[in-house]
Amino acid sequence: MRFEGKRAVVTGGASGIGRATALRLAEEGAFVLIGDVDQAGGRALAESSNRIGFRRCDVTEESDIAELLAECDGGGGLDVLFNNAGAGGAPDRIDEIAAADWDRTQSLLLRSVALGIRHAAPLMAKRGGGAIVNTSSISAMQSGYAPIAYSTAKAAVLHLTQVAAAELARHRVRVNAVVPGFIATNIFARHLDVPEAQRAQANALIAQVAGKVQPVQRTGQPEDIAAAVAYLASDDASFVTGTHLVVDGGLTIGTRASWDAEAPSLFAALEAFR
Ligand code: NAI
After folding, report:
1. pLDDT reading at 122 higher than 90
2. What whole-number distance in Å separates Cα of residue 34 and Cα of residue 162?
3. What's the Cα-to-Cα distance from 195 to each of 44, 85, 109, 113, 114, rounded to whole Å?
4. What are the domain boundaries of the chain?
5. pLDDT band at residue 274 under the 50/70/90 scheme
6. Contact status, residue 243 vs residue 166, Cβ threshold 8 Å
7. Range in 16-25, 28-37, 77-86, 201-210 the model is least confident about
8. Is 137 one of the catalytic residues?
9. How far apart are CA 17 and CA 187, in angstroms?
10. 96: which of 46, 73, 114, 217 is 20 to 30 A away, CA to CA?
11. pLDDT value, residue 147
């Protein structure tokens, strides 16, 4: 019960990582206000628990973010913010992307996080401190995991986390990021516009593949990220700020050949000449 008496806001809380985190924080005693554009999903989750509330919030709108945070604050304070809402963004390569699509993706994935911090920090400061966690991605660290506009925004989230942590330390506000690997959520099927009727089938296939791409041979689940976010947001991490926690089952620790004996490997080829 690390969050007994605490109040949290989770953006993108209607689905996937945000949903699992809202449930985890509530399970550990928090009141959680989720903000999302998915009103049906948000309301359904709020109806499932008297520790969870919902307010419609489009994180590309500054006023929506400010009002979501103010509602939580008005109900008794704001201790935790999880800046998590997101989607795949523009799919285009750098030699074809339109400026407007680039801007939309940065607005959803980067500006939203900056504005979340911007509006949460004063509310937390007046309460004597707080904890902010931002969702980045392994695509921030290496190419090949997501389109360029998304990957660039997620990399900037890491630096934003670091600099904001430095600026807000004097208010006892900690700022950290979580870096998920492949996590079985709706994000992939949504990004590919898979029709609703085929979503379950697509998600099952994605989960199956995602279970085999990293050293930890199982599918990453939203609850894996929720556990990391709960740690970073809790007093267990009271000496942790301006950093990030990679939760990817080892996906980014090395080449496939370093953990998979079946993968093509230069060293294995050289063995023939020993
Ligand atoms: P998801 O699609 O299950 O959940 C995303 C939620 O954000 C949805 O409820 C959606 O309605 C909401 N959302 C989208 N645009 C919004 C907006 N403008 N305003 C408010 N809410 C909005 O996807 P998932 O996987 O849970 O994604 C959560 C975060 O995790 C995202 O930032 C994503 O980029 C990040 N992430 C996900 C990974 C994965 O493998 N699933 C890997 C790395 C990062």
Report:
1. yes
2. 25
3. 22, 21, 24, 29, 33
4. 7-273
5. confident
6. no
7. 201-210
8. yes
9. 10
10. 114
11. 97
214-236 tens-digit pLDDT? 999 999 999 999 999 999 999 99
Element spanning 134, H or E? strand 130-135
Mind giving me the DSSP string for 209-271? HHTSSSSS-S-B-HHHHHHHHHHHHSGGGTT--S-EEEESTTTTSS-GGGT-TTS--HHHHHH
pLDDT at 62: 98
Please tell me the predicted confidence (pLDDT) of residue 18. 98
Cα torsion 100, 105, 107, 110: sign:
negative
**Does 267 score more than 90 pLDDT?**
no
Angle between helices 99-106 and 148-168 (to 10 degrees): 40
Residue nearest to atom 6 of ligand 1 (CA): 12
Q: Does 90 or 203 have the greater pLDDT score?
A: 90
**Do the beta carbons of residue 187 and residue 210 sit within 8 Å?**
no
Return the pLDDT at 139.
Answer: 98
Q: Which CATH superfamily is domain 7-273 in?
A: NAD(P)-binding Rossmann-like Domain (3.40.50.720)
Q: How far is CA 142 from the centre of its chain?
A: 17
Query: Which residue in the list 137, 139, 151, 234 is annotated as catalytic?
Result: 137
212 is written with which tokens? 């085999």
If you take atom 23 of ligand 1, which residue's CA is the nearest one?
A: 187
Whether 265 is in the pocket of ligand 1, judged by its Cβ within 6 Å, is: no
